[in-house]
Amino acid sequence: MPRSPARSLPRLLITLLTTVSLSALLTGPAAPAAGPGRTTTETTVVIEGFEFVPASVTIHAGDSVRWVNKDNDEHTSTSDEPGWDSGIIPPGSTFTQVFGTPGTFGYHCDLHSSLTGKVVVE
């Protein structure tokens, strides 16, 4: 016997809400909004000559940093503490990380230990 559409609708809504809720849990918290009167910005760090240029950047919570690999070698942007790991950034590629929490975050290249940098989030 076929189900009536009226009985299927509540089941469909429950399934949809469950899927949306699980999706939100799996993707983690969103970065905080920029706040009144302020927009988010993206700061670029270039990887070139086996250096992060600039080596230190200061941004606001909710902003992002984009690493651009202009070297001929692969690099990573990896947080010194648990935080983020870009994985391999091939030459000519980029990696972007949003910073939602104030603090000072040291990072390095997993492939080249002398390559280090710092992100200060206000």
Automatic annotation (TrEMBL):
Coiled coil: none annotated. Residues 37-121 form the EfeO-type cupredoxin-like domain. InterPro entries: Cupredoxin (IPR008972), EfeO_Cupredoxin (IPR028096), ET_Amicyanin (IPR052721). Gene3D superfamilies: Cupredoxins - blue copper proteins. Keywords: Signal. Residues 1-33 form the signal peptide. This is Cupredoxin domain-containing protein. The lineage of its organism: Bacteria, Bacillati, Actinomycetota, Actinomycetes, Kitasatosporales.
